[in-house]
Write a structure and sequence with these properties.
This protein has 278 residues and is mainly alpha-helical. It has two domains: 111 residues, no CATH class; 166 residues, no CATH class. The protein contains nine helices and no strands. It is globular, with a radius of gyration of 20 Å. The structure holds zinc ion.
Length: 278
């Protein structure tokens, strides 16, 4: 009984930590996106207020809480801080909380090398896809370098799983093949729509998604992305926030599909196999 009680407390603590960790990652993503865009060195330079340039102190950098505590204003010049910061921190916190709630905690309790590698890979890629979504949303751009680095990390992940005899060599090739197919599918969409629907960045992101998830999961990820994209697009047009002609970046929807799959894959996997193999 005592043992069950302490397990529950540990479980609860992990989820609280996951939420705070996610908020911290959200804050980091905000800072990196801002600095990459203005080509500032994002490792060495310290955070400062975009309006008055005052270097931010430790208290100003606490995610979510500092925004609430300062009521959304800079401590030094009292300028309004963009809601983007707290929204991204909250989304990131909720995403990491959900990941640990549905997947991560079970993997920590059933500790094994494979589970640990999977957990680490998932956490890194949730962060990368949140960043891709934010950057594409803000600046309509997906970094080639990030796609290349992500593909290399994924290849290393597959090689580790191969070495641990979790996956066969053929699986890496089939994932590569699906990545190329996803790339060509998006190229086709770009040619047909004359570049009005998708951009080159989406095409490269589609390759990465195909390479990570393979068949049939990546088709499901792309399907979620198109579905969420269509619903949100129609909503924005009907609420007159956007017109039929305005550009909506697709990267956030692709990232949304990826993150939903990473969190709910245990439930979706079953559904995907039922749809595609029966
Ligand atoms: Zn300021």
């Amino acid at each position: 009984m005592l043992f069950l009680g302490s397990m529950f407390i540990l479980y609860f603590e992990i989820l609280v930590l996951a939420f705070l960790f996610g908020a911290g990652i959200g804050s980091f993503i905000n800072a990196v996106a801002y600095r990459v865009n203005i080509k500032k060195d994002y490792i060495k330079s310290r955070s400062s207020c975009p309006k008055c340039g005052h270097v931010l102190g430790f208290v100003d950098l606490i995610p979510i809480f500092s925004f609430l505590f300062l009521r959304g204003r800079c401590r030094y010049c009292k300028e309004r801080i963009s809601y983007q910061y707290i929204v991204v921190e909250l989304i990131s916190a909720i995403v990491f909380f959900a990941y640990f709630y549905f997947v991560g905690v079970a993997q920590i309790f059933n500790f094994s090398t494979v589970n640990f590698i999977h957990l680490l890979y998932s956490v890194v890629f949730i962060g990368i896809f949140l960043y891709i979504a934010l950057y594409d949303y803000l600046y309509y751009e997906i970094s080639d370098r990030l796609i290349i680095i992500s593909s290399i990390i994924t290849l290393i992940y597959f090689i580790l799983l191969l070495a641990l005899r979790v996956i066969p060599f053929g699986l890496i090739l089939s994932h590569l093949f699906i990545g190329i197919l996803a790339f060509l599918f998006f190229l086709g969409v770009i040619i047909i729509t004359k570049g009005k629907g998708m951009g080159g960045g989406d095409m490269k992101l589609a390759f990465l998604i195909g390479f990570i998830f393979g068949y049939p999961a990546s088709i499901f990820v792309l399907f979620i992305a198109f579905l969420v994209g269509a619903v949100v697009g129609l909503l924005l047009v009907s609420l007159k926030i956007k017109s039929m002609k305005s550009m909506i970046p697709f990267g956030p929807f692709l990232s949304c599909g990826v993150i939903l799959y990473i969190i709910f894959y245990q439930y979706l996997q079953h559904l995907v196999y039922t749809i595609f193999f029966i």
